[in-house]
Amino acid sequence: MALDTAGTLTVEVTKLRVAEENLSDHALIEATKQGDESAYAEIVHRYRNPIVNYLYRFLNDYEEAIDLAQETFVRVYFAIDRYHTGFAFSTYIYRIATNLAISELRKRKRRRLLSLTGLFQSDADDTTEFQPRDERQLQDDNLVEDEQSKTIARAIAALPEKYRVPIILRDVEGRSYEEIAEIMELGLGTTKSRISRGRGLLKEKLKGYL
Amino acid sequence: MNGEVHNEQETLNKDEQAVSRLVAGLKRVEAPANFERRVIAKIVEGRPQRRSFFALPAIAYTVSALIVVMVAAFLVFKLRETAPANSEPVVANAATSSETAPPVNSTQSPDSVTVAQASPAALQPPDTEKRVSAKPRADINSNKGGGSYDTGQGQTRMPMPEGLENRSPSSANRNEVMTPTRIPFSEVLEILGMSADANDQWRVTSVRENSPSAKSGVKVGDFVTALDDQDINAQSGFSNSGSVTEITVRRDGKRVLLKVVSH
Questions:
Q1: B8 contacts in A (CB within 8 Å)?
Q2: B251: DSSP letter
């Protein structure tokens, strides 16, 4: 790509982006495997917001969500050769993000157990597990939520993992039951059951808003 | 994307629909503007290493597990050490019984007689020993279905279980394993530590020091008349396969009964 002026460069990049936007996920992955880094940049561009939003709702911590989302893309990149087109790329990346998020939660639990104060805290009720509220001011004003949204977010974050994942994928990310079942590596019936059960738990926590 | 949720045919009750709407109504957050750059930068840096702080708990768990394994292994070894100690008497008995054989199989050297003192039951002639040793071995094979080092050494008896005496077999065992073979008196007397002239009414010609005979009080010049209750002149050989407990001699015309001292 021999370019003479900055203006020409912009035009070429735009053309490239438009061309890649028309490619399917699988085509982009194949291009990435061939060494086309711009193809992977398009993948990141395509999935960054859904993954960040998903992780944010899962962890209720924006900075941690950003960090884990980046790590998700890095891991996908380095494991790109292991990905096969037998299932949707979105399923693949959500599964990785989910595993990282669950690892993060368990890490928090371990840290709490190892800390002196954590040793004396009650850990009996898993449904009200440790979920430190993110007190930091969100960087983007658009992320400022009203009290109701914060309550709902906290209620979701307080759900047990097995209900939280499908609820967020279903009601926040709008994924199909079949895809959620694939992401969680569960049967369809079990997935539906967990979503229903998760909604039941949320109903108890959000009675005031129903 | 959220709209897809409601496009699908779902049979949700009112509560579930309400909860679903509440959750779906949450504002979506977006990645920061420099997100892609940061991802590319991390990719350029190399494979993710951010989970390194897992190392501390992992090491702690590993060290704990290793300590538990080592303690367990130590206890197992300790238990194994104590187990053979409990079974030592069996081995010792086996050794004792194997030690009793040489005086019979050997040519009755002075040393072997000393061993025989400890176990008068070992007064067996070589030919008897062969027959006797064959039968228990057959019994062992038929009862136990296999051999062992001890039986392979040609012992006449099995090592007895702990708590059971195997120095002198019970009468039942004796009857089972012994044949009524007579042992020449001359051999018995030699094992007891004396030599006597059969042609001179079993006159004792010599007594070996520290032998059972010497300890029992046999003197040169005594005439041995009986071993236990068997008249040495009337019978062709000693038939008590187990032991000699009494020696009857005639000394200065008097009948003297001497108890055999084995040690």
A1: 176
A2: E
